[in-house]
Structure prediction request, 290 residues.
Amino acid sequence: MRSSLFLALTLALGGGTACIGNADAQSVREVRKQMEASMTLNGVINIGREGQVEAFQLDRRDKVAADVASMVEGTVRNWRFEPVLVDGKAVSARTEVRLRLLADSLTGTTMQIRVADANFGPVSDENKPSTDNVSSLKMRAPAYPERAAAIRGQGDVMLLVKVGRDGKVADVIAEQTNLTVVAPERQMQMLRDVLAKASVNTARSWTFNPPTTGANKDDAFWTVRVPVRYDFSQREERYGRWSAYIPGPRQQAPWRTGEDEKATGTDLLPEGGIYMVGRNDGPRLLTPLG
Prediction:
C-alpha cells in the first residue's frame, strides 16, 4: 500500500553521465557496452473473469513514442492472468501496472525493445481499512550525499525495513541500488555505497504506525519496502524517456520476510510508497511478459 510520503529527491539539473576525467573514458565505454536503456511506464489493466485482458489503458500515451506505445499495448493485451477470486467466485478485476521496458542495440541504428519486468497493484483491497497496513508516522527523506551530487550521480535505493511492534525500525538494509548514470565501475560502486548508506542511516530514525486490524495485526514484526530516488530531474520530465539502467546486486534480508525469494518487479515499486512484504494482493500473470 502507498503512504503519503514522497521520497523522490529532485534537483534542478538533468543528465545521464556522471562527471568523469579523461583517464576514465575508456572504462566508461566498456560500461556502456553492458548497459541497457530503460523506460518505466504506468497503466491500468481490466481483467476478465477468465483471466483475459479485456482492456489496457497506458498512462500519458502522448508522452510515449507511438511505436513503443503500440508494442506495449499489443504485448499486454495478449497476457493472461490466473482468474481473480472473491469468496471463491471468479470476478472481473482492475489493477494498476508499472512496466519496465529495456532496449538492446542490435546494430548501430536498430534497437530491440521488450517488456522486461512488471509490478501489479492490488486488485482486492478496495474495502480493506488502511489500518490493515503499516503506514508512516515520522519519515524524514535522506539528504542528497555530497559525494554523489558532486559527480551528478543518480540512482534508486530499495530499502527493506523491519518494523517492530513499537513502530520503530528494528533493522534495515539496502536491498538493491540501481544507477541511472554511466561512470567507471569503481565510481559506480562508490556511488552505490554512498546512496545506500545515506538511505539506511536516515531510515534508522523512521517510525511507523503498525497494523491494528487485518490478518497481520498480531505479527511479531513487519517488513516493508521503501523506494528512495536520487535524481536531478523532475518525475514528470522522466516519463516516456529512455534512461541508463545499471542494476546493482540484490541483497537478502538477514531476517525472514515471509516472501518468495523469486519475487519479481520489486524495484518497480513507485517512489513515495510503503509496501508490505509477504502480501500478494496483485494478480498472478500466467503468460510470459514479452
Remarks:
- Residues 117 and 209 are 31 Å apart (CA to CA).
- The mean pLDDT is 85.
- Helices lie at 25-34, 66-77, 146-150, 185-203, 235-238.
- The chain has one domain: 8-276.
